[in-house]
Amino acid sequence: MAEADWLRLQKKIFGRYIEQRLKEGGIKYEVKDIVEEMKSGQLMIDLLEAMSGQKCKKQLKPAKMRIQQIENANTALDFVRDSGVDLSKIRATAEDVVDGKEKIVFALIFQIIVKYLKIDEGDEGKAIDIREALNLWLHNKTQGYKHVNIQDFTKSFHDGMAFLALVHRMRPKLIDYDARDPGMKESNLDLALELGAKYLNIPKYLSASDIRKLDEISMIVYLTDWYTGVTLLQKQDIAARRIGKLVDVTELHDKLRADYKTRATSVRDWLDATIVKLNERTFDDTLAGVKQLLEQFYAFKKIEKSAKVAENLDAVSIYDNLSARLINHKRPPFNPAGLTPADLETKFSELESAETKRSEALHAELARQIHLQKVFKRFNNNTEKLNKWSADKDAYVKADEKINSVEDAEDALDTLNLFEGECKHMQASALADLNKLGEELFRERFEKSSEVKATQEKLNSLFSSLSQGATAKRAKLDAALAAQKALNDSLYKAFAAAVTDFNGHIKGLRDALAADGKKSLEEQLAAAQGVSWGGAEGKIAAIQAADAKIQERELANNPYTNVTLGDVQSVLEGLKALYTKKVALLKEQIEDKKRGGLTPEQLKEIDENFRYFDKDSNGFLNKKELRTCLQSLGEESTPKDIARVFAEYDAEKKGRLTRADFERFMRASLGDTDTPDEIKKSFRYLSYDKDHILTAELNNVVNNRSFTDHHVKYLSGEMPAKGAGLDFEAWTAAVFAR
């Protein structure tokens, strides 16, 4: 290659390299004539400061005269030597720099580049050359691509296929790699340079023919531009994955919100309508009618209400799932007006109250109808009894009834009341008439007055005896009635107490399963898995035993609770189902958190690179090993960045990173950082630092894995317009507000 051509290429490649390094150091600078611009010494100092992370201690002075310019150049060269750059082979002087001797200047720049293309190990005398990291990175990125066989840093790139493989690896939609012919070298290189300029931020400062003229060092320097460009695409991929995951999370959260609101609205509307129905008090004044209403009421509690309780538990499970996810993703809580689980719980309390009142009303009507039937029955019975009054009244008073229930006692007292009334009536009528006739006979001095008197005394004695017997009988029946009522009341109270005890226990279980933003996912899982069902099942058994005693006496309408055995069994079954879903959800979230958003491929690549660069297999990376390792992963880092990484992630503070330290750092670097600032930063990577993004720029990063056409369609439909593109800042703010 002609010397003029060589100098032209060196100016372009080294000028571009210097621009990139200065940009990384926060200096925006355009190199126009690198030889001319090196004369002042300032560009040399800026380059060394950006690459070494150190500051030049001596300031340059204004220089108009040659001697002043030479002094400044000497200051710059001293800084270069102090930074560890070996200038012994080129013998560069300040005069050479000021005079613009091209070969000397390029040799000087070359030595600076060599210094920072190689990381020395210091006292151990070892060196890890950046060629090694670059070679490993190239092989990682082009592995599996036919027609790519990187054996050197010159000829292996002359057919353009390696460059096209790098592009295709990162952006498979941009190029049909399999259709490319390695024999079409010029065409392949032209396409690679165009794609590099359009997507990798590599200006087309070289032509296809220039690529084939580069020597090894020039090609290595040029490949660092592709390394930086591919790193940009890799950062875009990480950004796209973060955005894609945010879209997935947002869609899932929105779906859970909609699903919960649909279910909760259905439950609430049913509750409102059912409460209205339960408050109706229209009866048909028949025993058959009220019995049918009671059957419908019990069927409602067993079937319709149980189904809605289960539906509500499903809704609560969705709400708890969403709440846990919102806490985990640091989102505002979801509190739909009038539809929260607490709101529905209040509605269910209103339903319970309406059920209790409905039950009371139905049983009161049932009692009324039963009483009327009993009165009718007694009317017929009493008619018959009157017909045999004189024959059995004495036997009745002396007999003891068998009392086994409140109803038995009440029936006996009703009969006694009737008997006493009959006695009074007989005394007021027949006996009074008899006594009246006797008095008349006495007045008239009837001859058989003594017989009349005897009969009169006998009858009066008989009624007196019946009255005394009735009084004694009433005392016995009153005591029997009180005993039966007390027994029923004790059974009712025992059942209600067992239900209250069960409800308190269930509340504790529900509290243990509820999402808690103050506890970690692991603590919540431990609490959920620590739940024991033995206590609840034991309390169900107590309720069953109490219910069996009530059923044995055929009792109904418990005045102390409206809850049935079936109700508490349904509650426990629903809570167990909710527990199963909760544990599965927490395990899923913990596993996702452990991965930190990294793909299995990324975790494998991180592990392989760590082990590769851990040269002595001691399980640690020092600062120089770390930088080379990061470069192989596409994570370029300045000395300042490396120092920051060690300050934050070197847990032992021994100037080395363990495997665990390194993985924590990479999770933070490559994983899904879900904050508004990181998401907006991710969009800026994709939009090339614009405040809006084009749909085409979203399409460019589709990889059909972590970022798909669906994500592009969703974002295009959800983001408001801004300029020629989409307003990602407004969309991000809206997403994190819900």
Features:
Actin-binding Protein, T-fimbrin, domain 1; 738 residues; two-stranded antiparallel sheet; mainly alpha; Methane Monooxygenase Hydroxylase, Chain G, domain 1; 71% helix
Biggest beta sheet summary: 2 strands, antiparallel
Average pLDDT over all residues: 85
Roughly how many Å apart are the termini? 64 Å
Shape: rod-shaped
The CATH class name of the domain at 217-387 reads Mainly Alpha
Q: Biggest sheet: strands side by side, in what order?
A: 1-2
> What is the CATH T-level topology of the domain at 217-387?
Methane Monooxygenase Hydroxylase, Chain G, domain 1
Structural class determined from secondary elements: mainly alpha
Percent of residues in beta strands:
under 5%
Poorly predicted ranges:
118-127
Helicity, as a percent range:
over 70%
How big is the Rg?
49 Å
- Quantity of strands, as a count: 6
**Shape-level CATH architecture of the domain at 217-387:** Up-down Bundle
What is the count of DSSP helices, taking H or I runs of 4+ residues? 27
Structure commentary:
With 738 residues, this protein is mainly α. Among the domains are: 3-116, Orthogonal Bundle (Actin-binding Protein, T-fimbrin, domain 1); 147-214, Actin-binding Protein, T-fimbrin, domain 1; 217-387, Up-down Bundle (Methane Monooxygenase Hydroxylase, Chain G, domain 1). It has 27 helices and 6 strands. The protein has helices at 3-24, 34-37, 42-52, 66-82, 94-98, 102-116, 130-142, 161-170, 185-199, 208-211, 216-278, 287-328, 341-387, 389-398, 406-443, 449-513, 521-529, 534-552, 565-595, 600-613, 623-632, 639-649, 659-670, 676-686, 695-700, 709-718, 728-736; strands at residues 118-120, 127-129, 620-621, 657-658, 721-722, 725-726. The strands form 3 sheets. The chain has a two-stranded antiparallel sheet. A two-stranded antiparallel ribbon has the order 3-4. β5 and β6 (725-726) form a beta hairpin.
